[in-house]
Design a protein that fits this description.
mainly beta, 4-stranded antiparallel sheet, 11 strands, globular
Length: about 130
């Protein structure tokens, strides 16, 4: 059974950078489209980005465009989220999840995803 583990979270000052990793075990990640979500304090979980299985297409939520970059290394069974120019409002728990069908179409809908990781905490603070 596919299992996902997120890592790379931490505490960073505004304007700083972090790179999150989502590593799969139990199955090859290359067959899946992968999304990143986040849940800020007191907020609902929201989609941040998505990358298709082959890695040639991706989507971003408007607030992170130009600052976040999603990528994948299927040989390492890992998807990354490079986060630059971090803002206070980027604080939250970041989750990765896999989506079997239709690329990143509908990537904002949680019901599109079958497996989820446990999340990694990102805190942007002075």
């Amino acid at each position: 059974q596919l299992q996902l583990v997120e890592s790379g979270g931490g505490l960073v000052q505004p304007g700083g950078s972090l790179t999150l990793s989502c590593t799969a075990s139990g199955s090859s990640l290359s067959a899946y489209n992968v999304g990143w979500f986040r849940q800020g304090p007191g907020k609902e979980r929201e989609a941040v980005s998505c990358i298709v299985s082959a890695g040639f297409q991706w989507k971003y939520e408007d607030s992170v465009k130009g600052r976040f970059t999603i990528s994948r290394d299927n040989a390492k069974n890992t998807v990354y989220l490079q986060m630059n120019s971090l803002k206070l409002e980027d604080t939250g728990i970041y989750f990765c999840a896999v989506k079997e069908k239709y690329g990143c179409a509908g990537y904002v809908f949680e019901e599109e995803y079958g497996y989820w990781g446990q999340g990694t905490q990102v805190t942007v603070s002075y």
